[in-house]
Every structure is written in structure tokens, then in C-alpha cells.
């Protein structure tokens, strides 16, 4: 059973490995990255030691710099046995490219948003279907931009009444915000 894992890590080395055979009996190649996990934001109790991906971007593989210099924020699928799988569709960003709000939200507020759902708004108008939902409007408001203002500077946080709302900025959420009833 695969589950979502979100980690901060460095890739130390890479090698091509066989990963079983396809339906025609041909070996399936994968890149195995040995990584040094710096922090786990979400995932299994066991640290991730290896990340697997397809051997090229043409077949949805993600390429990581090895040598342990670049730190990444990586979201992918974990097997729970120290192994993780990533594709082109998974989030892989260099840690340095994240905004201060994104870093702080990951380090200090991640758990506050775990029970919230983020729904992508493709075109205006959009509506939430429940109070535990935050509408992500970057796509509609900023010409299909997946790395827009909301993604960079806001966090979707659960409040004391059980509803979820976007919170902006570096400062911790004020108690009034967490206690407020209307988004």
C-alpha cells in the first residue's frame, strides 16, 4: 500500500536498477537515488533512504542533482520501508526556491492544514462545497499559474470551529483568526 510522503532531503548518489519486468518480459529500468533525509513533514515512521523514478523525463522520471549539495522538498509515494517513488507529476522543488512563507508553513504549520482540503479553481466563479475546503484560485486568476500568489504566500489552515481558510504571512496566526466563524 503506497501512501503520500513529504520530505526535505539531499540526493547523495544515483544508479540504474532493474525493477521487475514489463508484460513482454523486458526489464523495467529505474533510477535509484540514495538520499539523506533532513526532515519528514508527512509519511511513515521509518526514514526514507531511497527514491525511485523512471530513467528519463520522457517516461515521467524526475532528475535530481546528486553530490549532496542541493536540498529538495519532495512529495511522492512511500512504501513505508524506506523507499519512495516520484514521477513528473509529483512535487519536487529545491529548498532554496521556496518562499519564507512556504518554509515556515512547512516547518511550523503543516499539521494545522492536514484536515483541510484544497480545491483547484479552474475558472471563475468557483464555490467551496464544504467548510473544510480552501479554494486555490492561482490557476484561474493568474493565467494557469501553479506557482502563484496563493501557492507562495498563503497556507490553508484549520480554525477552532472546524472550518478552513487561507492565512497569509510569516507571523503565527492570531487567536482571533483561529476563533473566527466566517472565512
Automatic annotation (TrEMBL):
Keywords: Disulfide bond, Metalloenzyme inhibitor, Metalloprotease inhibitor, Protease inhibitor, Secreted
Predominant location: secreted
Record's protein name: Metalloproteinase inhibitor 2
InterPro entries attached to this UniProt entry: Netrin_domain (IPR001134), TIMP (IPR001820), TIMP-like_OB-fold (IPR008993), TIMP_C (IPR027465)
SMART domains according to UniProt: NTR
A molecular function GO annotation: protease binding
Subcellular location: Secreted
GO cellular component labels: extracellular matrix; extracellular space
Name of a matching Pfam family: TIMP
Disulfides per UniProt: 1-114, 116-164, 121-126, 134-156
Domain spans labelled NTR: 1-114
Biological processes per GO annotation: negative regulation of membrane protein ectodomain proteolysis; response to cytokine; response to hormone
Positions in coiled-coil regions: none
CDD domains in the record: NTR_TIMP (cd03585)
Family: Belongs to the protease inhibitor I35 (TIMP) family.
